Amino acid sequence: MKKTDNQILTIFGASGDLTERKLIPAVFNLFKRGFLPENYAILGVSRTDFSDEEYRKKVVFDNPHLKASKDNPGELENFAKMVFYQSIDTKAVVDYQLLANRLKTLCNDCHTDQNYIFYLSTPPSLYSVISKNLGEAQLNTEEKGWKRLIVEKPFGYTLESAKELNNQLLESFKEDQIYRIDHYLGKETVQNTLVARFGNTIFEPLWNRIYIEKVEITAAESVGVEKRGGYYDGSGALRDMIQNHLLQLVSLVTMEPPARMDAESIHNEKLKLFRSLRPLTQDDIRDNVIRGQYLNSTIGDKQYPGYREESGVDPESRTETFAALKFYIDNWRWADVPFFVRTGKRLPTRVSEVVIHFKPNHHHLFSQRRIANSQNVLVFRIQPNEGILLKFGLKVPGNGFKVETVNMDFQYDGLTDAYVPEAYERLLLDCMQGDATLYARGDSVIAAWEFVDPILKAWKDDPDLPVYGYPSGTWGPEQANALIENGHGWRNPCANLVDDGLYCEL
Ligand code: BG6
């Protein structure tokens, strides 16, 4: 096991939703599993006035997202002892002296070294201010311990602003101190795409244009924008999910084998891949990028509001809650293989998966009408039930050679003693150990923006590009189906990994 140094985690945006829902629970799980170093502290930082005790009550004792073990009543108390709070005005450089002093005191009291992670879980407009102020207060220097900065998404709003943010961060921190988090990369099956490809002999020889017909990626959510209408209306599905999570996923599924399993080798391959994405022309954006917005509908006996009726959303909003696109990767391995990616809110179910469609075999021995035998399909189910499914043809018992598609699947929940860590848990531990493999490097984030930015510009500048409505609880606008040629359509996944071709969960 890698060594985890004694350290302090400082969370900016300490009274926010992410801290309560994901960050504190992630550290708590690491604590329960014995992954924290001997000396460790969490310092929450925000403007609100809390004492240490009040903050502990909020994020530990009253936090509904912490799952304490029933047989260990002292667990919460022991964890809470590591949690502290400091109120500062994050915009005021003078307040960073307060922070520096508090960190020093904590180092003495808790016997941690001066190894600090600063987690930016604030509105994005504060990222560059905080990093600059940390630099002014010398909290970026590494003479007496390492310093790391974790930056939450969204990383930029456009290509320009992403470049600007990157440059601003690099004024105070070096690239190897900056950890741009993308929680999709912390998901078990996302990492499994690498293991399946590069840890076996049977997949990689087929992983190219000669054997693969097309690749589909779906990230569907059944919820709407919930309480985040204000944020979401300024973002939309392309920025919220595709620019980051889904393009990161595309890169892992398609990149070349890295020389080594380390951050630099993987980041280099991902960058190469992003640079091979064929830029979308205006015609491609018109024909191959579909956006939609959910409309109100009744599912069962429940009435769901349309997007424009959600709180915080402009009643005339043209922000997309669904986006689907078709694109190509111009390199030796993937020339002419179409990629289809879609995501949306208020779809029939919550599911994310990657579907690899292999080409049909070239000689159809078992088909009377000489049409292609059913094709092989490999599915990586990322959530909710992590697993892998392979579809292939087998003989139906009896006379003749009737072929039927069968499923071979592996699901993690079948392993009773397998603990599947939450994405934030895995990623935080990696940062604590100085491993940036599952974080995004600046140049590849910019390269992903270069691909997405023309779509955002076209949507902004051309009012004729439609936003299609789709009833809540359906698989998005019909036009998205037409993207996949030959009438085969998308695999509309069900909650159960092996069911498909059905309209489930409606
Ligand atoms: C976030 C988006 O990054 O990812 C949300 O801002 C989205 O809108 C969420 O709901 C999806 O993540 P997960 O892990 O629930 O699939």
Automatic annotation (TrEMBL):
Coiled coil: none annotated. NADP(+) binds at residues 47, 153. Residues 194-490 form the Glucose-6-phosphate dehydrogenase C-terminal domain. Catalyzes the oxidation of glucose 6-phosphate to 6-phosphogluconolactone. It is an enzyme of class 1 (oxidoreductase). Gene3D superfamilies: Dihydrodipicolinate Reductase, domain 2, NAD(P)-binding Rossmann-like Domain. This is Glucose-6-phosphate 1-dehydrogenase. Keywords: Carbohydrate metabolism, Glucose metabolism, NADP, Oxidoreductase. Substrate binds at residues 183, 187, 221, 240, 345. The keyword Secreted does not apply. Pathway: Carbohydrate degradation; pentose phosphate pathway; D-ribulose 5-phosphate from D-glucose 6-phosphate (oxidative stage): step 1/3. Its EC number is 1.1.1.49. It catalyses: D-glucose 6-phosphate + NADP(+) = 6-phospho-D-glucono-1,5-lactone + NADPH + H(+). Belongs to the glucose-6-phosphate dehydrogenase family. Pfam families: G6PD_C, G6PD_N. The active site is at residue 245. The keyword Aminoacyl-tRNA synthetase does not apply.
